[in-house]
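Posted in: Protein Modeling Q&A

I'm a second-year student putting together a small comparison for a lab meeting, and my supervisor asked me to include a predicted structure for Putative nucleotidyltransferase. I've never done this before, so apologies if this is the wrong subforum. The sequence is pasted below exactly as I got it from our records. If anyone can share the structure token output, I'd also love a short note on what stands out.
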Amino acid sequence: MTDDTFLNGIADALAALPTVEGVALGGSRAQGTAAEGSDWDLAVYYRGAFDPEHLRAVGWEGEVSAVGGWGGGVFNGGAWLTIGGRRVDVHYRDLDVVEAEIARARRGEFDVEPLMFHLAGIPTYLVVAELALGRTLRGEVPAVDEFPDALRRSASARWSQMAELTLAYAAANHAPRGMVTQCVGSIAVAACQFAHAVLAAEGTWTTNDKRLLHAARLQEIDGVIAAADHGTLADVVAQAGTLARARLQSATAHIADGIDVA
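Accepted answer (user: helix_wrangler)
Welcome! Here is the predicted structure, written out as tokens:
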């Protein structure tokens, strides 16, 4: 079965579910960066109530969560499936919530929510990023193009502030006590926070942690963490901060005088 035949069959089945108004392809498959064996990320955009039992009734192998089963918030559940031997993730997207987050993003407003597999949590504008980076397969979904200027300013400032506080706490509390795990964990979280700050300043959408540091060109922090040992924890925390601040400064240099580059 070709990829197109495979995808069209799934899109048709998802579009036929009650209350679903649109189906979109996301992730590496939508962006043309998929590797062999990459999974397929799809989202169902529904209006009103969505009943996962209708998705279960399609008969695909895998786990189908309740609405809100992945912690609630904007990322409110979905399914991990195997269809025709291929891995498929289906995400539930409430159109009322998505439209509200689009409006908030344009005003520079967002929240940060905890979500498994995302070290620093996710910004609620993640659902807006999905629309900007995805491809509509069936029906209609909201259109999103550029990263809002107001969000570039607010998100870069907020994420960088969180990163600075994360490192400061590690330097003041974990490093003096030789707490290696806590220090390394704090650096990892702060690196992700700095990465979000960099990408926001540059007006670059991101939807997950898989290549977050690489997208922000902060992968050098891998070397900082690899060099960590009990005797130099304070230095390691400081080195990570210095590296990340320099990258953020270059990303935000144009913001002070107005945003005119992507």
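A couple of things worth pointing out for your meeting: Residues 149-252 form one domain. Strands lie at 20-26, 40-46, 61-64, 78-83, 86-94, 112-113, 122-123, 135-139.
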